[in-house]
Recover the amino acids of this structure.
C-alpha cells in the first residue's frame, strides 16, 4: 500500500465510495418504490382518495419518530445545505449515521406519499460515505472534501443513472472552484455508482421518444425560460416563508400534524403530488395529456382541454407548497425532484396551451423536457446540471441547444433577483458560506475568535503598585497589561512604557499610585461572541493593533491581535488553496 501514490490511492477510494454510493442509491429507490407499491397495489382504487389523506401524515410521523428514537446524540438535518455547511465550516465532517438514516427517513417520507424527491437524501448519504471513508483512511481536508463530493455525486449518478450529471452536480454545487485533477475521482465514483445502480435497479427514470427541435419553436423556448425563471424566484420566496412559518411551531408532533393534514388535503385534490411525481411526467411524455385529471376528483372533466391546462398550472403551485410542507414538517427529502416535476408541468401547460390557440403546433414532450432543465437551473443555480441531467435521463440529446438556452436564461433571471441558490441562501446570511467572490470576508467568516485569542498576558490587580510587580513587569514579553479585579472584571489596561517610567524613577509622583489609578480605558473591547469581520473593522477604524476580549458579563478573557489574526488568515488561505488543487 505504501508503494501506491497518494493520487492513485484517492482514485481507489473514490471507486470504493462509488460502489457503496451506487448500492445506497439502489437500496433507497428499491425501498421507496416497494413501500409505495405495497400501499397502492393492495388497496381498492375507490378507497384510495381517502387513504391518500392519511398516508403522507403517517410517513412523516414515522420519520420523526425514527429520528427522535434512534438519533439522540447526533443532529439530523436534510437537504443539500448541511453538506455545503460541512465543507465550509466543519472541515467536511458528516456524522456517520447519515449513511443509513437519510435512506430510512426519506424512504418512509416519499414512499408514504410525501411530496419530495429522493436525490438530496441519497446525495447526503453518499456525502457521508465519502467523508467518513476519508476520515477512516486518515486523509487530509482536501482529500476528504473530494471524497465527500465523490459520494454525493455517486448518489446522484445512482439515483438517475446519469454519471455525467452527477459529476457536474458535485462541481457546480459542492466544488464551485475546481481544477482538472478533481475530475478523475469524480468520474470514477459516478461511473461506478451508475453501473452498480443499473445492475441492481435498471428501470430508467423517463422514456422519451422525440424528434429534433424546430427553429420556428425557438421563440417559445425562450418565452418558457422567462416564465420558469420568474417561477423560480417565486419558489425561493415561498421557501423562505414556509421555513419561517413551520419554525414558529415548536412541538415536533404539532408540525407533523399540521404538515400531514395539509399535505393530505393537497394530495386528495391533486393526486399528482403523491410521492416524487415522476409518474405523471412520464404519462405526459407518453402523450396522455389528460393523465393529470384522470385519477382526481375532477376526472369527469378531463376531456375539457383548457381545464387540463389550468389544472396543470394549479398543480405546479400546489406542488411547490406540498414539497415545502413535506420538508419543513419533519419529512426527509429534497427539492431536486419537485423542481423537475414543477418545471415539466409548466413546460406541458405552456406548450399544450399554445397548441390550443392554433398559432403553432409545438412538440409538447420537448417543452416538458426543457421545462425540467430550466426549473432545475433557476431554483438550484446549476445550469450545467440541468442540461446534462435532463439530456441523460430522457435521452433528449437532440434538444441540447434548447436546453442550453432555457437553462441559461432561467438561471440569469433568478440570479438577477436572488443572489444565492435555495441551498446557499441561509448559509450566506449567516456568513457560513465558503465563496471565492469575496475571499477576505469568506476567510474571516471561517475564523473563530477563540482560536486566535491570546491569554499569556501578565494580569495586574487593582490594589497593587508598580513596585509590587517589578519582576513580572520587567520580564514579561508583552507590552500591555490588563487590570482585573477579584471577580474577573476588566477594569482597564496599562502599557509597559508607562510602568517602566515609574519603575525607573522617571515619573516619581506616580510611584504610590495603584494599578486601578494608573489604568486607562481601552479604545474598544471585543466580546467573545463577536465575529472576526467586526473585530477587524474595529481595529481598522481605531488604527489599533490589539484589543482586550471579555465575555458577556465583562470578565477578562485575553487579547486579540492583528498578528494572530493574520497568521490564522494565512493558514486558512493555505487550506483553501489545498481545497482547490
Amino acid at each position: 500500500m505504501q508503494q501506491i501514490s497518494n493520487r492513485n490511492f484517492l482514485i481507489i477510494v473514490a471507486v470504493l465510495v462509488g460502489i457503496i454510493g451506487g448500492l445506497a442509491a439502489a437500496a433507497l429507490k428499491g425501498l421507496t418504490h416497494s413501500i409505495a407499491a405495497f400501499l397502492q397495489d393492495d388497496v381498492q382504487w375507490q378507497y384510495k382518495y381517502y387513504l391518500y389523506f392519511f398516508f403522507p401524515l403517517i410517513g412523516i410521523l414515522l420519520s420523526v419518530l425514527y429520528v427522535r428514537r434512534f438519533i439522540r446524540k447526533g443532529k439530523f438535518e436534510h437537504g443539500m445545505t448541511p453538506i455545503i455547511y460541512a465543507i465550509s465550516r466543519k472541515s467536511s465532517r458528516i456524522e456517520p449515521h447519515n449513511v443509513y438514516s437519510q435512506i430510512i427517513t426519506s424512504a418512509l417520507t416519499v414512499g408514504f406519499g410525501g411530496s419530495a424527491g429522493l436525490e438530496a437524501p441519497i446525495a447526503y448519504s453518499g456525502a457521508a460515505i465519502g467523508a467518513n471513508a476519508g476520515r477512516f483512511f486518515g486523509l487530509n481536508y482536501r482529500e476528504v472534501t473530494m471524497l465527500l463530493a465523490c459520494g454525493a455525486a455517486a448518489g446522484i449518478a445512482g439515483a438517475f443513472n446519469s454519471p455525467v450529471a452527477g459529476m457536474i452536480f458535485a462541481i457546480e454545487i459542492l466544488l464551485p472552484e475546481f481544477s482538472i485533477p478533481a475530475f478523475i475521482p469524480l468520474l470514477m465514483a459516478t461511473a461506478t455508482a451508475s453501473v452498480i445502480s443499473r445492475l441492481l435497479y435498471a428501470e430508467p427514470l423517463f422514456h422519451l421518444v422525440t424528434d429534433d427541435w424546430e427553429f420556428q419553436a425557438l421563440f417559445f423556448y425562450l418565452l418558457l425560460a422567462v416564465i420558469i425563471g420568474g417561477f423560480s424566484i417565486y419558489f425561493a420566496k415561498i421557501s423562505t416563508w414556509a421555513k419561517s412559518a413551520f419554525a414558529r411551531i415548536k412541538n415536533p408532533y404539532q408540525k407533523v400534524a399540521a404538515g400531514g393534514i395539509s399535505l393530505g388535503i393537497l394530495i386528495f385534490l391533486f393526486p399528482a403530488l403523491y410521492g416524487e411525481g415522476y409518474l405523471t411526467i412520464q404519462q405526459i411524455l407518453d402523450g396522455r395529456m389528460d393523465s393529470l385529471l384522470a385519477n382526481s376528483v375532477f376526472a369527469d372533466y378531463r376531456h375539457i382541454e383548457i381545464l387540463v391546462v389550468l389544472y396543470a398550472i394549479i398543480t405546479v403551485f400546489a406542488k411547490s407548497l406540498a414539497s415545502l410542507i413535506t420538508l419543513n414538517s419533519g419529512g426527509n427529502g429534497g427539492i431536486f425532484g419537485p423542481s423537475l416535476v414543477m418545471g415539466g408541468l409548466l413546460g406541458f401547460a405552456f406548450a399544450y396551451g399554445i397548441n390550443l390557440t392554433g398559432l403553432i403546433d409545438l412538440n409538447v414532450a420537448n417543452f416538458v423536457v426543457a421545462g425540467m432543465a430550466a426549473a432545475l437551473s433557476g431554483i438550484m443555480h446549476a445550469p450545467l446540471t440541468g442540461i446534462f441531467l435532463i439530456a441523460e435521463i430522457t435521452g433528449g440529446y437532440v434538444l441540447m441547444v434548447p436546453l442550453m438556452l432555457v437553462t441559461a436564461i432561467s438561471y440569469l433571471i433568478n440570479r438577477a433577483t436572488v443572489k444565492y441558490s435555495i441551498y446557499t441562501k441561509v448559509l450566506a446570511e449567516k456568513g457560513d458560506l465558503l465563496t471565492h467572490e469575496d475571499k477576505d470576508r469568506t476567510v474571516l467568516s471561517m475564523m473563530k475568535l477563540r482560536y486566535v485569542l491570546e491569554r499569556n498576558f501578565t494580569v495586574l490587580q487593582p490594589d497593587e503598585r508598580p513596585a509590587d510587580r517589578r519582576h513580572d513587569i520587567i520580564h514579561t514579553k508583552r507590552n500591555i497589561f490588563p487590570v482585573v479585579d477579584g471577580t474577573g472584571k476588566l477594569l482597564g489596561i496599562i502599557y509597559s512604557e508607562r510602568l517602566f517610567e515609574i519603575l525607573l524613577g522617571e515619573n516619581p509622583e506616580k510611584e504610590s499610585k495603584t494599578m486601578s489609578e494608573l489604568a486607562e480605558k481601552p479604545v474598544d473591547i471585543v466580546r467573545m461572541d463577536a465575529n472576526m469581520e467586526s473585530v477587524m473593522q474595529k481595529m481598522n477604524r481605531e488604527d489599533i493593533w490589539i484589543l482586550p476580549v471579555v465575555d458577556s458579563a465583562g470578565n477578562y478573557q485575553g487579547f486579540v491581535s492583528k498578528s494572530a489574526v493574520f497568521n490564522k488568515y494565512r493558514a486558512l488561505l493555505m487550506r483553501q488553496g489545498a481545497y482547490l488543487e
